[in-house]
Amino acid sequence: MINPASRTKSIELSLIRKMFEVTNPDAINLGIGEPDFDVPENIRNAMKESLDENDTHYTPNKGYIELREEISKKFKKDNGIDADPDNIIVTVGASEGLFMCAQAFIEKGDEILLPNPSFLSYEACIKLADGTIVPVDCKMENEFKLKAEDVEEKITDKTKAIMLNSPSNPTGAVMEKEDVKAIADLSMDKDFLIISDEIYEKIIYDKKHYSPAKYSDNVITLNGFSKTYAMTGLRIGYLTANEEFTENLLKIHQYNIACASTTAQRGAYEALSGPQGEVEKMVSEFQRRRDLIVSRLNGMGYETVNAEGAFYVFPKIEDEDFVMKAAKAGVITVPGIAFGSNGKGHVRMSYANSYENIEKAMDILEERVVNG
Ligand code: PMP
Questions:
Q1: Hey, which of 17, 36, 226 would you mutate to test ligand 1's pocket, going by the most ligand atoms within 8 Å of its Cβ?
Q2: What digits encode the pLDDT tens for the residues 169-180?
Q3: Ligand 1, atom 5: nearest CA belongs to which residue?
Q4: Is the Cβ atom of 237 under 6 angstroms away from ligand 1?
Q5: How far apart are CA 21 and CA 316, in angstroms?
Q6: Are the C-beta atoms of 316 and 302 separated by less than 8 Å?
Q7: What pLDDT is attached to residue 211?
Q8: C-alpha 369 to ligand 1 mean position (Å)
Q9: 327 CA distance to ligand 1 middle (Å)
Q10: Domains, the chain, ranges and CATH?
Q11: Which of 129, 159, 308, 351 is deepest in the core (most CB within 10 A)?
Q12: pLDDT tens digits for 140-197?
């Protein structure tokens, strides 16, 4: 009998993936966490060109220098972060970045502050690194925004790191500047690491995004191309941190994957250096859908925060059978509990689906689940 390692046994396969397996293929999918848009044409062409040039060999471990220079400019312009290209690593999605942070910095005995609810992978990565999770509540009364005072309460001498994710999956909450800054200040005063997952940075409505790395040196900033440029399947992301952190992260990256895909790196270069019109169009379409889904759900009596970012809403729905009833009626959603204990009594709905499909899905819920 060959047993998996106990760390592997300590985690479960994703509940979201399981939901897709059990429900009917014709259902409208509001469970999905990826843009329904295509990769913009200029990016597709750059990747085709790279293949035609036989640019298919290993790149430097940290990624092509031209790409890292573009990422460095992006950090300066959008985030106010001075990131030397030497302190940037191009990753296989933000997912690899996350795993790398956990493997490089977390060990047994370390306490990791984790917003509750939050993205599923955080818990799994922390557990696989033997860390201890200390949940920090994101309360509906605060529109699910993580507050610095709630973080401060949970800090002990074992606190090693905090996970931040603004805009948030699963709630769409965008943190306020004063909380980002206060948590950044705490990370310096109390000497802990901030792992800041900023993958939804650009999908934000009438609100500004703030990066903690602008205010603290104890930050690893993660980002990627999956959401902003609809490049999920190309598996490409990046991170930056100070020199010492980067060197340790590189050890994990180097022995795990060597380098991110050449083709995807060429596409990523075009994404950052080319025109940004497609991103703007996509974000304004997301905002139109957000307005629709929030008003329809509130109209059905499901209290829903007017989320300021990402492409998720997190309505309060106390009926424990809602997700199953909705799936049977033809709408896939995800139970909030999948994202932590505070997700109980909520359902995550993604509006990365067409306006027409969202309208149809809301009609189905209204006719067959609420009044059914
Ligand atoms: N962080 C968050 C909050 C996410 O929602 C996702 C994707 N669902 C990721 C990271 C992973 O993104 P990538 O495709 O870049 O690995």
A1: 226
A2: 999 999 999 999
A3: 169
A4: yes
A5: 25
A6: yes
A7: 98
A8: 30
A9: 24
A10: 6-39+277-370 (3.90.1150.10), 41-273 (3.40.640.10)
A11: 351
A12: 999 999 999 999 999 999 999 999 999 999 999 999 999 999 999 999 999 999 999 9
